[in-house]
Amino acid sequence: MNRRSFLAGTLGAAAAPAPAERGLRCRAGGGFKILAITDLHYRPAPDVHGIALTERLIEIERPDLVIVTGDCLSGKDCESPQAVRTAIGHIAAAMEKKQVPWAITFGNHDQEHFPKTGLDKDAVLAIYAGHRHNLNAGYARGLSGAGNKHLLVWNAAGTRPAYCLWLVDSNEYITEGKNTYYDWIHADQIHWYCRTSVELEKQYGSKVPGLMFFHIPLREFNDMVNHAKIIGVRHEPEAPSPINSGLFAAVLERGDVRGIYCGHDHSNNYVGRWKGVELGYVASAGHRAYPSVEPDDPSNGKVRGGRVFLISEGSPARHKTWMRFKDGAVNWEFESEAYTDYQLKR
Predict the structure, then answer these.
(1) Could you give the CA distance from residue 40 to residue 71 in angstroms, rounded to a whole number?
(2) Is residue 18 part of a domain?
(3) How many domains does the chain have?
(4) N or C, where is the chain less crowded by C-beta within 10 Å?
C-alpha cells in the first residue's frame, strides 16, 4: 500500500556488546562491509523475489553485516502471533542461509499487527533475536520505541572499535484530532545517543566514527535536496515527521556520526552531504510494496537493491558507500571516489 494513501484516510542504560557482537571485526586487510536494505514489507506468504534478491546481494557483496532499516513487516497482513513469526522467518531467511550477522530497525508499518496479535515491540524483537545470526538482543531499555542500540565494529586486531553503528527506532504515528502524521525520534533517544557517544569517547580516548540507521528520514533531508547536490535518484518527495526532533543538531554537536541512512521513501536511493554529514537512502528490496510493478519488470533493475558501506580502519577510520542494484550494476559512488567528492561539494 502507498503509505501516503494510508495517511490520507526514561533514559536507558548503554548496553555492553553481547558476545556475538564482538565478532564484528574488520578483516585482515582492514575492511568491514555492510549491506543495508529496507522496506521488505514481508507477510506470512513469502516474497520469493525479495528473498532471492537479498541472497543475490549477499552473494555479490559478501557483507560482514546486513541491516534492514524498517518496514520489515507488512504489519496489517500479520493477523496472529504465528503469522508474525512466519513473516520474520522470511526476513531472516537469506541471512541465516548465508550465515551473515544481521539486525533490523522498526519502521512505521512494522507494528500494525499489534491490535490483533498483542505482540509489542519487545516481544517482536525477542522473535528476531531467536534467530542464530541476529544481533538485535541487548538493546537499551526504557527508551521511546524499542531496539535502540549501538554495535561496535572492531579493528582487525580486536583492540579498539573502528566504527560505531547506531540503530534507532524512528517510531510510528502521532494522531491529533483528525490528523495523523509521522512520529519523530524522541528526546530520551537523543540523550541516550549523546550519553553513549561521550562514554565511548572517554573509554577509547577519542570519538568513535559512526553511521546511524533508522527508518523515517529527518527534515534535514529536505534542506539538503533544496540546497545541496546529491548523487542517485530522487523519484519522490521526502516524507519526514513534521516535527524536527533535534537529532541532527545533536549529531553535529557530537561530531562522531559520519552518515545517517534511512528507508521509508521506496523510490529514492540518493546520498548527499549536509553540514558535513552524509544523508542518504537505503534501497527497497521487497517486491510487494510500491512502486507496484511486476517482479520481472525491467524497472526493478534500478529501483530495488541495497546500499553497501565499506569501512576501512585507520587513523581515523573512514568509509565509502555505493548502491548495488537488482540488475547487478553499481553507481558512480562505487566507480569514483573523486567524482563523489566533487559531486557533493556545495
Answers:
(1) 6
(2) no
(3) 1
(4) C
Domain that holds residue 273: 27-343
Is there a domain that residue 1 lies in?
no
pLDDT value for 346: 56
Contact status, residue 53 vs residue 295, Cβ threshold 8 Å: no
As a whole number of Å, the end-to-end CA separation of the chain is 36
pLDDT at res. 258: 97
* CATH code, domain with 91: 3.60.21.10
- Answer whether residue 280 is part of any domain: yes
| pLDDT for residue 65 | 98
Cα–Cα nearest to 311, from 254, 258, 250: 258
Q: Which residues of the chain fall below pLDDT 70? A: 1-22, 339, 345-346
Query: What DSSP string describes 161-199?
Result: EEEEEEE-----EEEETTEEEE----HHHHHHHHHHHHH
- For residues 171 and 144, the answer to whether their CB atoms sit within 8 Å is yes
Q: What is the DSSP letter of 140?
A: P
| H runs (alpha helix) in the chain | 3-8, 48-61, 81-98, 114-117, 121-129, 187-204, 220-227, 247-254, 300-303, 332-335, 337-343
How far, in Å, CA of 23 to CA of 102, rounded?
12
Residue carrying the nine cell digits 536507558:
12
Residue 204 corresponds to which amino acid? Y
- Is the residue at 258 inside a domain? yes
